[in-house]
Amino acid sequence: MGELKVLGRTTSSNVMKVLWTAAELDLPFVREDVGGPYGGVDTPAYRALNPNGLVPTLLDGGVDGGVAIWESNTICRYLCNKAGETALYPAAPAARGLCERWMDWQLSTLAPHAGIFWIMNVRTPEAQRDPAVLAAKREDMAKALRIVEAALGTQPFLGGARMTLADVALGPWGHRWFALGADQGQFPNMAAWYARLQTRPGYQTHVVKVPLS
Ligand SMILES: N[C@@H](CCC(=O)N[C@@H](CS)C(=O)NCC(=O)O)C(=O)O
Question: What mean pLDDT is predicted for residues 179-188?
Fold first, then answer.
């Protein structure tokens, strides 16, 4: 196996998913800070690897003769495919579908709300935060996360009985939701799931212990 290199700052929720997946799979990797305050996403060299100018990008086998993969959830699947059989990405069609629907849901339904929620609460200087807008964006987020809350009422993890990439895709947002003051009493199933995820060393290292920024 060639060297795996993750390009992306550790504070990105999408980079977190990739680093946590690699940790779950015991796949060694190196990482370079790119994006956010580190910049580097607009250079011709980076755009040649990832035309979106976003992080993460995964390089497998080095830039020369290797492959560059972007889209965080695709990178997570790629890592599982490289690792071989793993419960994180079940092979059986039904189990895989139950896992992957959440991965697509996270990108298509949650991410637009989550991005705005994050910018308003963390990136916007406090003096410029409008309480009415903050409340509206929090409610958009809550409305989406009530779907997660309901699903977790009947099973410990989003894909079923075991942790899968579905939980990896949503896990960074579970942490951020509670870290930004959501009432665990109003999301009890999510709170129990969040506690379950916190038993995973990779979640602790790559999600919980990373500063909110
Ligand atoms: N759908 C993409 C979204 C990637 C994305 O939006 N990345 C953000 C960080 S979470 C980014 O690159 N922002 C610009 C930057 O960090 O410079 C994925 O899942 O990889």
Answer: 96
Q: Which atom of ligand 1 is nearest to the CA of 73?
A: 19
CA atoms in the 13 A half-sphere facing the CB of 56:
30
CA of 111 to the centre of ligand 1 (A): 10
What is the per-residue pLDDT across 69-126, written as a single tens digit (0 to 9) for each? 999 999 999 999 999 999 999 999 999 999 999 999 999 999 999 999 999 999 999 9
Residues 196 and 157: beta-carbon distance below 8 Å:
yes
Mutating to test ligand 1, I would choose from 34, 55, 57, 74 the residue with most ligand atoms within 8 A of its C-beta, which is 55
Q: Which atom of ligand 1 is nearest to the CA of 75?
A: 20
Q: Give me ligand 1 centre to Cα 195, in Å.
A: 26
**pLDDT value, residue 78:** 97
Give the span between the Cα atoms of 168 and 25, in whole angstroms.
12
Residue type, 155: Q
* DSSP helix/strand/coil, 68: strand
CB of 107 within 6 A of ligand 1: the answer is yes
Amino acid at 28: P
Domain annotation for the chain: domains and CATH numbers: 4-83 (3.40.30.10), 93-200 (1.20.1050.10)
**3-class secondary structure for 172-186?**
HHHHHHHHCCCCHHH
Residue 101 to residue 122: CA distance in whole angstroms: 28
Quote the ligand 1 centre to 56 CA distance (angstroms). 7
